[in-house]
Amino acid sequence: MPIRFLSIPSETAAALRAGGPDANGQPPERAVSDGPGNPCRHCLRNISEGAPMLIFAIRPFETLHPYAETGPAFLHADACAPFSGEGPPPILAESPDYLLKGYTAEGRIAYGTGRITAHGDVAGYAADLLAGDRLAWVDVRSARNNCWLTRAVRA
User: Fold this and answer.
1) How high is the pLDDT of residue 85?
2) Domains of the chain
């Protein structure tokens, strides 16, 4: 099953950089990266130490409902290109494992799909989950902090 990983839309990144509201209705906070552990949700690379960044609330769901989780995320303060590579993005090589959860087209968690997955198995498990018609996407989150990192969809 060919899959691809998505970043936040470029329009969203531009709006946040311009001071637009995040998922909580607040402007992003400005900060300076202290190095690894600050993954940009647009280019899906870590923000280098000393680089300006934004911290914002993200809710990667189209509508509000009980499963629409909100959490913190990072973004390069300066423009960066959206992720468009083949395979898992660079930020998925930074940790030994990640939390993957499958979702239905209605944005509901498909119980039984959530699993802590070794970084080398992320693409394979996401592809397995997306092989049938039951799921619309798989979210990849930090296994340590539950922060949303990227979404896997059918290619």
Assistant:
1) 87
2) 9-76 (3.30.1740), 86-154 (no CATH)
